[in-house]
Task: structure prediction
Amino acid sequence: MADRGASARSLPDDWPAHPDPILALNRMGSFDWDLDTGLYHMDAQAHEVFDFGPGEFDGRPDSLELRIPVAEAHRLDALVAQAMKDGSENYGAYFRIRTRDGSLRWTHTQGYIRRDDTGRPRRIVGIVRDATQELGDVEARREQAAQDEARRRQTNVVQLTTAALAHARTVDDVIDVLKDTQGLTHLGAASIVVGLLEGDRIVLAAEGPQDSFVPGTRVTRVDEAYPMSEAVRSLSPRFVESPEEFAERYPGLWQHIIGLHITSAAYLPLIAQARPIGAVGLLYSDRRGFSPEDRNVLLALGSSIAQSLQRAMLYEQEMDLAAGLQQAMLPRTIPSVPGCDVAVRYRAATLGGALARDIGGDWYDLIPLPGGRVGAVIGDVQGHDTHAAAVMGQLRIVLRAYAAEGHTPATVMARASVFLHELDTDRFATCLYAEADLATGVVQVVRAGHLDPLVRGGDGGCRRVAVEGGLPLGLSAEFGRLAYPVGTLELDPGDTLLLCTDGLVEQPGTDLDDGMRVLAELVESGPADVRALADRLIEVAEARRGDDDVALLLLRRRAEDAPRRGGRLQQHVAPGDPEALTEARHMIRAALRTWGDEERGDEIELVADELITNALMHTEGSAIVTLRVLEGADRRLRVEVEDSSSALPRRREAGEAGVSGRGLFLVEALTDLWGVEARGGGKCVWSEFVVHAPGDR
Result:
């Protein structure tokens, strides 16, 4: 420190200042520096801090140069001068002193600048203390913080990689995470290599980044002298801590990776359930050696990768099994049915945005029936797993069997619901069964909690056909509500019936009605060919990447080769359901347009209406109306009304004011032939009409 020299002016009365006893207790020394005289007084504790013995310091600042190195003295002088110049009241600094044995130790000083009334500095009073331990503690804390930060970064490697792998569903997904540039950043590695064990071979599954492939390592044996082979063989990691060690231990491999500037590497076995499934190699270009903490982190990383790979392998095996099961449950081929063009499509769900496909319970079926009829089925079993696929397969079979037995659409659906309920499963299913007569175009539709059908007209317009429905299959039997209303619609030549599951309609943030409107617009703007239209709709579903399956069935009625002879239609009429009577009349009129002479349409409709009304009024039960064509010497149209009562109809005198009793007289007068047949616990009242075949008039 600079010597300011002596002054004629006397020292202050309170000079030197008396140190606070607390300073001594805290091993702090004090000093009092008179700037006018240049004298520098230190107490005994301050002498000890500067390593001065009794009488070794003469009170002059320049004598401190014995203990303060020149560079430190210049720094302190500049600090004090700046504090006095800018009007500061105090200053503080750490500096080093050289003890009598020549060693350096850290010291801290803090001074208070006293000024006169004009602001001129006159005196500095302060303290000095040994700061060696303090700065040692600070350095230790800094080193500890650096170690903690390094450990945190290493732990983040595992956490970030594990988080990324949590979304991987397939082996390819896992590999993509590890190969991705961001994945390498998470791992802190310059290059990565992954091999999967197949028998006694290790097959390279990934290497990254690009241009890092080593020739001859695509497939290696477990017993070869490669670090990955050693890791798999020994079930323990292989750490290579320097380029020299790499070149010495694996010279054959080293010569191919010199250009990657690798400084160290870690090869980790991938172990799942105590068995090796492969190995991963991490190659570094910015580090040498691995601390115990590094090794522990890398072992945890290898365990995380192994678990993800095993999960992905099991997932792919399950998906292969489930996909095979579902394919076995869906129809292998769709039969060719004269009179219609059919297209079916199935798209599996895409769950969680992943590329992997999942299994579900959606299905379709097409059932050829006698008399130029065809049954079309669309359905969806609750759930996305093999159990849903198994239930779906059983439902498809029983629906086909019930339809082939000749049951009415309502009966087919009711029996299928009972069957599902008796399976003792917790699943339910929605379903729609449509039975179409391709000669007349009449379609009878039964809906069990499923979407309404759509019809695209020959002119390209598309409409939603509202059909009253019942409960989903399985639930209707459970709640004792097995009645399924039958809706009737009509397909003109060139019209297309569209049946689908909700995966084609539902979208996040939109309700079902909006989805149906969007679907109708897509159908209207799509191609006329049913196969091209089906492809277009599935492409849209693919683009949406929905999380539900899609099953789709399109049936287009053709006119040129539709069957003209024979035919059979059936309608269930429930008591107290005026709509059912209307639908039965609609069915008769549509059939007559194709099967017979429309000139007798009013007679046939009137007789059928009378027979149905009698069945409903006198049996208090439902009726089943069947309309069929009988070929023989004469072409006859036969109307059958079946009920559950064994009581035979009888003629009654109506009287002049009677409003009933004339029914059988009316039937006898209008029909060419009529009669009654016993049917199990009930009966069938039938009537026949001679009609002309189309084109005979």
In short: The chain is about 35% helix and 25% strand. Residues 99 and 582 are 117 Å apart (CA to CA). The longest helix spans residues 292-329. Residues 4-8, 352-357 have pLDDT under 50 and may be disordered.
